[in-house]
Design a protein that fits this description.
With 384 residues, this protein is an alpha+beta fold. The chain contains twelve helices and 13 strands. The strands form two sheets. Strands 1, 2, 4, 5, 6, 7, 8, 9, 10, 12 and 13 form an eleven-stranded mixed beta sheet that branches.
Amino acid sequence: MSGSLARHGNLLAAAAENVACNARGYVVAASGLILGLSLLLSGVAIGEGVKREALDSVQAGADLYCSWDAFGRDAPVPLARVEQLSSIPGVVQVVPRIIGRARLASEWAVLVGVPLERLAEHQVPVQGALPGGPAEVLIGAELARLTGYSAGDSITLEGHSVRVFRISGIVSSSSSLWSAKAIVCELEEAAVIFGEKERVSDACVYTRPGYEALAGEAIERLDDRFRVQTRDLVEGYVGRGTTLREGVFSALSALTLVLAIASFAVLTYLGKSPRRREIGLLKAEGWSTTDVLEMVALENLLVSLFSAGCALAISLVWVRLLHAPLIGPLFLPELPTFPSMRIPSAFTPLPPLLALIFSITVTMAGSIYTTWRTAITRPVEALR
């Protein structure tokens, strides 16, 4: 048993020596593979991070979301109808909100109007303070960076009416992604800006545990123009949307990996003649075909570990430190090409493991067959 282990250890040492002696060639051959795997790992991590943050936001939100039906499409809800929802059995709280687009300086932002007392119920990481009255607003960190505003500055929002606000605080860049380019103000102020004092975008309904379905049915009976979406339904929409975007990116990354396979195979073929002479010398010294194949397989394993490790390290730096330049906007279209804010990401063990398996498959496919063909020939022929 000890002799067998010593034999495998010697083959591993020989494989490591070959890789070290031909490091430049292996790095060139594996560069395309490393690039493709880096893109794939980065895309999967961002997709998973965006999905998790979106689902966490849904879980922390309301039990039911109520909008209005107009000509078969979602429409603003009459405020008078929203007030009736509080009388539904099982309903604990109803929070109306207004969501729309507004322009701040040269940037478009998401204007969110909610009752300000609702903000005090949540732990919002803010640089400054929460709004203390209707004349104050919160803005997201990315929006503040792009416009140059800071806490204490005055801003003007134009719509149906022009309103001047004071920035009480800036939502930290480490907060939720969805607040990055948002402006949060009092509900009535948003209604004035958009010129819609009698309607709101939707209503968030909070119910007692187990009353979601009953409350939803009661709301639809109250008026068949109510469109009710449960938390589970919203989770399904969010999950499918993020998975679809992640799948498209993964398909594009797969194309890069196909090109990497071709380049690895070509570079391996260019090194066929030196490897043929090396194998001929080993056979002449008494090495068996199994020894030669095992040594080459160990070389491929070392190269695969190097490729997968480099790809993971590049992905971590690219996403966590550099904020996913170039690929971040593919998942989050509102972001600039070089974002400065935190990009949600989740590096789980499975993708790097699959990357390692893929690397091993590519390297083995590029060399094992040609090695076997050379190893079974007579040493005299291999040395010609």
